[in-house]
Amino acid sequence: TAIPSTGMAKMDKDGAFQKYEFTRHAVGDCEILIDIMYSGICHSDIHAAKGEWRPTKYPFVGGHEIAGHVVKVGKAVTKFKVGDYAGIGCLVNSCGECSYCKNGQEQFCSKGPVFSYGMPDPYNSSEITQGGYANNYVIAEKFALKIPKNADLKRVAPLLCAGITTYSPIQFSKVKKGDTVAVAGFGGLGHLAVKYLVALGAKVTVFDITEDKRTAAQKMGAVKYVNVKNAHEIKGLESQYSFILSTIPQKYDPTLYIKMLSMGGELAIVGLPATENQPMINGASLVYAARRKVYGSLIGGIPETQQMLDYSVANNIYPDVEIISANQIDEAYQKVIDGKVQFRYVIDMKTLKK
Ligand code: NDP
Ligand code: ZN
After folding, report:
1. pLDDT tens digit string along 97-150?
2. Do residues 183 and 151 both lie within one domain?
3. CA torsion 78→348→66→213, rounded to 10°?
4. 210 by DSSP, 3-state: which?
5. Do the beta carbons of residue 54 and residue 17 sit within 8 Å?
6. Are 204 and 198 in contact (CB under 8 A)?
7. Distance from Cα 270 to the centre of ligand 1, integer Å
């Protein structure tokens, strides 16, 4: 039987979040039902809620940084038992048969992965997925993450998107101890990137557009903080960095960062500004900054997400979070847009009354 769910949804583009009752598909043999305790607010939720990338399907329940515990297991489930902590990130299904899926890179599934919200799920009668701003979620055990027992549940949820999205390119670019690296955009994703890079022993510079986060960057172990609004602070940084991660969600000039790469250096782009704010890279400027590499990165597969989670909990790497209640989502969205969050909002889903 279908599982009743209560969430916070936007019913149209301009309306506020409101309580919304819906159903999720019945718990299959290989699936689990998670009672959600905490749900992070990612800037992607905001882009999606506003239809900034493509038209959004309403009602829209956001949330792909989900932490809770298992309340029901299908009869073939082996990875979880009732009472275990469990997490959900951006990925909730994929074909399981293509070479990407078989290699644990479900985010690149050749039939297209199914994301946690706003997408038809062809593996479940094409129901439109609804995210984690809700009291529960039904998911195949394969796509659920095991949250270690000793994890700090209040802070763990943002690792499931912000954590893996920054951890994965750091691994892919093989950043190592002593490397001179940088993070552009010091928000939810960016501050976790700084923590991973500092833990690796890299020398980290942070780029952002505010004075408000200078001290926080230092506290997290960054060696330099650059407010890119101050032209004099950017001077002399050409060819300095072997790795730069850009998490910027607004229009900006990537060439600024490409020029800062040392020869052979890599710029990984994970920020996904609205379609109308997409940054452009000029071909000639790439030639002039020859032999620097630019690539995009999209979350990470399930095995790497589990690895990131175990590593983060074992090394006490968590986001800085502000816990809010379910009726504060609209206010929180505005504060993220205005750069007023330190550094991730997490909704206490138990504040959502049935
Ligand atoms: P946040 O809003 O928390 O952080 C963005 C940060 O970038 C803020 O600190 C902001 O500044 C800063 N910023 C804005 N403009 C500039 C600029 N021109 N130069 C330098 N810094 C700037 O967002 P998130 O970290 O949650 O998400 C970042 C982006 O990553 C989003 O576009 C999101 O959709 C995308 N994303 C991509 C994923 C992927 O798999 N590729 C996965 C998850 C998210 P301020 O201090 O003023 O706020
Ligand atoms: Zn996200």
Report:
1. 999 999 999 999 999 999 999 999 999 999 999 999 999 999 999 999 999 999
2. no
3. -140
4. coil
5. no
6. yes
7. 9
Domain that includes residue 246, residue range? 163-296
- CATH number of the domain at 28, please: 3.90.180.10
What domain count does the chain have?
2
The reply to whether 312 falls in a domain is no
**Is 190:208 a contact under the CB 8 Å cutoff?**
yes
Return d(Cα 253, Cα 352) in angstroms, integer.
Answer: 41
CA-nearest of 169, 161, 207, 159 to 320 is 159
Q: What are the tens digits of pLDDT across the range 15-69? A: 999 999 999 999 999 999 999 999 999 999 999 999 999 999 999 999 999 999 9
Nearest-angstrom CA–CA distance, 155 and 163: 11
Do 322 and 12 contact (CB within 8 A), yes or no? no
Question: Are residues 129 and 119 in contact, defined by beta-carbon separation less than 8 angstroms?
Answer: yes
Contact 63, 180 (CB under 8 A): no
List pLDDT tens digits, range 90-105. 999 999 999 999 999 9
Bridge partner list, 156? none
For ligand 1, atom 34, name the residue with the nearest CA: 44
Cα(44) to centroid(ligand 2), Å: 5
Residue 258: inside a domain:
yes
pLDDT score of 353? 79
Query: Do 282 and 324 belong to one domain?
Result: no
Q: Please identify, by atom number, the ligand 1 atom nearest to the C-alpha of residue 273.
A: 32
Which residue's C-alpha comes closest to atom 44 of ligand 1?
44
How many angstroms separate the alpha carbon of residue 338 from the centre of ligand 1? Answer: 11
pLDDT band at 321 (very low <50, low <70, confident <90, very high): very high
User: Do residues 175 and 328 lie in contact, with contact meaning Cβ atoms separated by under 8 Å?
Assistant: no
